[in-house]
UniProtKB/TrEMBL annotation:
Gene Ontology MF annotations: 3'-5' DNA helicase activity; ATP binding; ATP hydrolysis activity; DNA binding
Binding locations of ATP: 26-33
UniProt cross-references to PROSITE patterns, sorted A to Z: UVRD_HELICASE_ATP_BIND, UVRD_HELICASE_CTER
Similarity section: Belongs to the helicase family. UvrD subfamily.
Coiled-coil zones: none
Protein name, entry field: ATP-dependent DNA helicase
Keywords: ATP-binding, DNA-binding, Helicase, Hydrolase, Isomerase, Nucleotide-binding
Annotated organism of origin: Proteiniclasticum ruminis
Stretches assigned to the UvrD-like helicase ATP-binding domain: 5-285
Length: 744
DNA sequence: TACGCCCCAGTTTTT
DNA sequence: CTGGGGCGTA
């Protein structure tokens, strides 16, 4: 294998630097997967590193699967002994072995966001927290942030001792965590946090994994949160064989706790780190790259770099103004059909949007026009009611302490066990300090219920116990069929008059296929493993390019993928970037990165569309054209129809028009509203000054030092050192990025 | 206990 | 506009 022929100079260096910390800053389309896979192959072939000594972490299961496939094609079957998976899958695997150290059982259940919500609801009810004071959504979000930053309930409580509201959150966090443990369940964040907890509390366990994973690789490093960072740090701090790949410009998950400092500070954490930049883009035509660069360069908080093209300019970026969202969809589909007639395959095209709600219009038209399409995300298959019901049965069989699942199906199908009964049982369980299932097991000891109701509960209990026994002798697929039949669930759907229930039956059949497929693939199929795989898949994982259909997905889901033709739709200030971005510079920067990710998905052709009128919540609203379109220089874009004059920057891009209930247009000017608010609250206007603003002679104002004149500037490692002669305070040296300066 | 009607919140983004 | 949840009634 002649790597030097296969790789460019930087790629070669990144591939062959195996020992010690390595940061690969890989711009979009710069061949980082190529580097990662060849690097793994190089490690094994040239350096005799064993596959089981390597831990490679990716962002999605799909990325993991692809990487595994590509590594396998380079080194053969031995690739199967390597851990290539997501943070969550790897940690779940570790926890299945080690979690007993923390007092959980190995057959723990993984709770998704719906389960979380229902558990938190219980918690708030038990704490008698009024919904108006704290919703479960807020509580969950705070708990999640805490877990992502490794703040445990006790420390959380301490931290907010004197904070009335957060103190309530702290109590909720404590009880929530207690219930999770009682249910023998972990939420998504726990999967990472508990692994870290074990590593920190039990050095001998940590050592075991440090010895095992002598080489660690992390992809999409810019999207790791603090807990994940800590995990990697613990594993690698001794041998320091850590290779991370990331691109600060593609960090789009800060809303979920991803901490960009992990990448910006890597060199500080590992002083000996080698840094390799991959800046040559092999994916996109020149104009597409130029467009991406012209959008992202507006961000201040980034490592300076520019993607370099390897292809020629290609066509211009095509901009289309639609009358409304309906017409936008019609245009896109028409264009797709045209491209298809010209010889493109449908699978070469993708529609990327900001929110899942936008997919509906496109689905409608695609269906109408009989264009094959694949929808990624939105209502996931596993999120459908009937699937969740069935999963609840399976989870309960697997782990009887799982109250969330128990409560979900105890009266589905109807068994005359209503809410009051469940509450009575739950109360008794809480009182006795046992699980809900225990109370049901010992039902006869307590006289809680009327005879008839008690009989119903006993019947339910016998059924679950029966499932439990059958689990031992049946395959998962057999168990699924048995449950659907014995519980009466299938029967209720089949005899229902509701037309929706017909498709529910189909979905359950589809689910059975998923199970059968799993049984074929798995080495040792088990209910436990099956459930875990279901909980940890995302929809992007389902994406495959086998059949010829166009792809519909959010910009977030598109990360890591590429398409010859990309339609970015809904480019309107208020939608993308969303309204909150227009007032919060940090959110705006993240939105810009998201735009950058979207643009760089395109290989050959890029369309950007916006609609003058759009249905939002059943109302017609009018947003102005997106800043992201305006950011692209005119010489590399073409308007497919006439531009709307009012949409120019010089008018005011931040005016939102909407129709009130009398169908009258009302203007809402975001900037003016903001100015008014500032006047009232007396906020200083914090316009960030750029380097171009701060030139010698410029008058500036500082809140503490007052008015002064810039006398000199000097470059300082990406920042600018500014020397200012203040009128009353003398001469000061300030760093531009931190000094709260404004023009005077 | 079961069912139907009404109200309201939701649209950022997901492992 | 849509779906879920809460509340009141049979």
């Amino acid at each position: 294998m002649d790597l030097k022929k296969l790789l460019n100079e930087e790629q070669y260096e990144a591939t062959t630097t195996v020992e010690g910390p390595l940061l690969i800053l890989a711009g979009a389309g710069s061949g980082k997967t190529r580097v990662l896979t060849h690097r793994i192959a190089y490690m094994m072939k040239e350096m005799n590193i064993r596959p089981y000594e390597i831990l490679a972490i990716t962002f999605t299961n799909k990325a993991a699967g692809e990487m595994k496939e590509r590594v396998r094609s380079l080194v053969g079957e031995t690739a199967d002994n390597m851990w290539i998976s997501t943070f969550h899958s790897s940690c779940a695997k570790i926890l299945r072995r080690e979690i007993e150290a923390l007092g959980y059982k190995k057959d723990f259940t993984i709770y998704d966001s719906y389960d979380q919500k229902s558990l938190m609801k219980q918690v708030l009810k038990e704490l008698s927290v009024d919904e108006k004071d704290l919703t479960e959504k807020e509580a969950i979000s705070h708990v999640s942030t805490a877990k992502n930053t490794l703040l445990n309930p006790v420390d959380f409580k301490k931290k907010y001792e004197y904070h009335f509201r957060m103190n309530k959150v702290a109590d909720a966090y404590i009880l929530y965590q207690k219930k999770l443990k009682q249910n023998n369940a972990l939420d998504f964040d726990d999967i990472i946090m508990k692994t870290v907890e074990i590593f920190e509390k039990f050095p001998e366990i940590l050592e075991k994994y440090q010895r095992k994973f002598r080489y660690v690789l992390v992809d999409e490093y810019q999207d790791t949160n603090h807990a994940q960072y800590r995990l990697i740090n613990l594993l690698t701090k001794d041998h320091q064989n850590i290779c991370v790949v990331g691109d600060d410009d593609q960090s789009i998950y800060q809303f979920r706790g991803a901490d960009i400092r992990n990448i910006l500070d890597f060199e500080m954490d590992f002083p000996d780190a080698k840094v390799v930049k991959l800046e040559k883009n092999y994916r996109s035509m020149g104009n597409i790259l130029a467009a991406a660069n012209s959008v992202i360069k507006n961000n201040r908080d980034r490592k300076e770099k520019t993607l370099k093209k390897t292809k020629d300019e290609g066509g211009k970026i095509k901009i289309y103004r639609a009358y409304d969202d309906f017409e936008e969809a019609r245009f896109v589909v028409r264009e797709m059909q045209r491209l298809y007639r010209e010889g493109r395959n449908y699978k070469e095209m993708a529609v990327l949007y900001r929110t899942n709600a936008q997919s509906r219009k496109f689905e409608d038209i695609l269906m109408q026009e009989a264009v094959p399409y694949k929808l990624i995300g939105g209502l996931k298959f596993y999120d459908r009611k009937e699937i969740k019901d069935l999963l609840a049965y399976l989870r309960l069989v697997n782990n009887p302490f799982d109250e969330v699942s128990l409560r979900r199906i105890i009266n589905v199908p109807k068994r005359k066990i209503g809410n009051t009964t469940v509450e009575k049982l739950q109360e008794n369980a809480n009182h006795q300090g046992e699980s809900l299932f225990d109370t049901i097991m010992n039902l006869e000891e307590y006289s809680l219920l009327a005879a008839g109701t008690q009989a119903s509960v006993v019947k339910f209990r016998e059924m679950i116990l029966d499932f439990n026994e059958k689990q031992l002798e049946m395959k998962v697929s057999e168990l699924v069929e048995y449950i659907l039949k014995t519980s009466g669930y299938m029967k209720e759907l089949e005899t229902s008059k509701n037309p929706e229930d017909e498709s529910r039956v189909e979905n359950l059949e589809e689910f059975l296929n998923v199970v059968l497929e799993y049984e074929m693939k798995a080495e040792e199929p088990s209910l436990q493993e099956f459930l875990e795989s279901v909980m940890l898949v995302s929809d992007v994982d389902q994406y495959n390019e086998a059949d010829d259909s166009v792809t519909l997905m959010t910009l977030h889901s598109a990360k890591g993928l590429e398409f010859p033709v990309v339609f970015m739709v809904g480019l309107e200030n208020g939608l993308f970037p969303s309204a909150s971005c227009l007032t919060d510079p940090n959110e705006m920067e993240e939105a810009r990165r998201l735009a950058y990710v979207g643009i760089t998905r395109a290989m050959e052709e890029l369309y950007m569309t916006y609609a003058e009128n759009r249905m939002v919540f059943g109302r017609m609203v009018s947003y102005p054209v997106s800043d992201f379109i305006l950011d692209i220089p005119s010489n590399i874009k073409e308007h497919l129809n006439e531009e709307k004059k009012v949409h120019h920057r010089d008018v005011n891009p931040h005016t939102i028009k909407y129709k009130d209930k009398n169908m009258k247009y009302v203007d809402y000017n975001v900037e003016k509203a903001l100015e008014d608010a500032k006047k009232i609250l007396d906020f200083p206007d914090k316009k960030v000054l750029g380097q171009e603003d701060v030139v010698p002679g410029a008058k500036v104002k500082h809140p503490k030092f007052g008015v002064g004149t810039v006398v000199a500037t000097a470059d300082a490692k990406g920042d600018l050192k500014v020397t200012i002669a203040f009128d009353n305070q003398g001469i000061k040296n300030l760093m531009l990025s931190i000094a709260p300066l404004e023009l005077a």
